[in-house]
Amino acid sequence: MDKKSIIGILLIFAILVIFSLINQPSKEKLEEINRKRDSIAAQIEADKNLQIQSEQGNNTFSMDETIPDSIAKENLVQTRLNELGMFGNVSIGEEKFYTFENNLIKLTFSNKGARIYSVELKDYRTHDSLPLVLFNGPETLFELGFPTNEARSIQSSQLFFNPTFSGNHVEVRGATIKKADRGDERFNRKNPGDSKSVSFILELSTGKSLEFIYTLKYNSYMVDFDIRMKGLDNVIASNQSYLSFLWSFDVPRQETISKFGEDRYTNIQYKYSEGDLEQLSTNKSDSKSLNNKIKWIGFKQLFFNSTIIAEESFPSAKVTSEKYTDNPNYLANFTADIGLIYEGKSQEDYNIQFYFGPNHYKTLKQYNLGLERLVYLGYAIVRPVNKWLIIPVFNFLREYINNFGIIILLLTIFIKTIVFPFTYKSYISQAKMRALKPEIDEINEKFGKDKPMEKQQATMALYKKAGVSPMGGCLPMLFQFPFLIAMFFFFPTSIELRQQSFLWAHDLSTYDAILSWDFNIPIIGSILGNHLSLFCVLMTATTIITTKLNSQATASPGMPGMKTMMYIMPLIFFFLLNNYASGLSYYYFLANLITIGQTYIMRRFVDEEKIRAQIQVNKKKPVKKSNFSKRLEEMAKQKGAPLPRKRR
To answer: What is the pTM of this model?
Structure first.
């Protein structure tokens, strides 16, 4: 490159530098450029967010979101119209909330989807004294879904409804009511309170609307839910036979964490219109397609439930339970995707009910829907004991006594009085066994351990001759087992005991920890937990005492391992019941105390010497053969007799 070329390049560069300095914008102009650039960036970001929402199916827009300018808004409206057709305009709005309550429950609605946003039970609190909310908005899906003739999928949760009532709060009032009558329909019939409805409507055009109507009576846990569709027969796809109603929410914890408490009883249960109650798994995630007619589907916890009920029946549904593990706030996610029959008429109405309330047997039974089966009363063999005896007596005592510790004491005395005849008969049988102990010892010495068969035969012969049944002490005790097992199921699920304190137990529906620790004990910790329950300790101690008293009646050492097992069983129950309701351990503790008292009283008034004398008299009498033995001997004689000779 020559000298002239280099000079030329330097001159051109100098001219460019001077030109750029001359044309540099002022400070005010730079600020204007920055504002325009920021506006363009905001527009791009809004469009990007809109695209993401569209891909996720969230096709709604709130007016309170940042809108860069009127052009962006117009673009948004056009996008909604393209995505949702005639529903596009009603998918844009501002979310607002409304409350609807009576003396028992408080409902919160959102105009976005006209959905039940949350439900609070006003008479109850969580274990940590917070308001008891069955479910809350952000975790809730509550929507009616259907396809349109334009091949678009519409969900009501995308749309903004208009309330037809004034204000944002509606209250249902009635007469003053005492606690025992809350939720009682008989009280409502005698003392009728208000009944009000709130409605949310979606007007698409003249004669085309979708309306959700909620009705709530005073002193009721039931909420009527009516869906009214007018003029949508030309909007909904003509080949559609069913609409979809989707209800789903995360189930919040209400009780103290315990594997034998709320975690164990939380699941989805459902009842067929012509069938029994069925349920999903309680200990793992589960789902099931229900293809027969369903009367109701219940999202059940230990003490509360949220249940959707058909006027007649739901034709089909799919229920899903996703269990959460080690989640301190939520137990599971419950989902019910329910089919609603669509006939393509100009007006379609659906009448549904919701129950939001406690798992209280008397309250649920009054509706005659089988909802009381949500309260687990045990196996079929003991369920009648709870249903027809324990619950009526418990409710009777509750009307007159407020202290549940006293109620359980009186209930225990009542049950022990009923089974006392069997207890007495068992004691007399054991006394007879003790009277035969010297003869039993002689038989044991005579035959020793080498001749177990001969020893057993001689022992049974002695029992028969003395008129004593070795099972006489066991059979009467079997009649007491249904009561023991029935209480095992009654106390942990009895909402009446929830948050009721007695002595050191702050809540009779859960364990009464007097000693706790933070570390984990290998193997034992997974069963025992990280605490000691005092009522459980007292129950175990008194059970060992009753075991010792009963073991003194054992005359035969034919089963040497039995005594050891009798002392191991109380320890097994200690590990099992340490995490159970303290009300249950308290009941067993009281039952043991009464048994110990009865044993000492019977020992004082039953003359065992007289029983022994009577046994000695029986031994001298000829052994009376049973009818069964007589029939066996007669059959043997007939079999060995010669056949009669034939006549010639």
So the answer is: 0.76
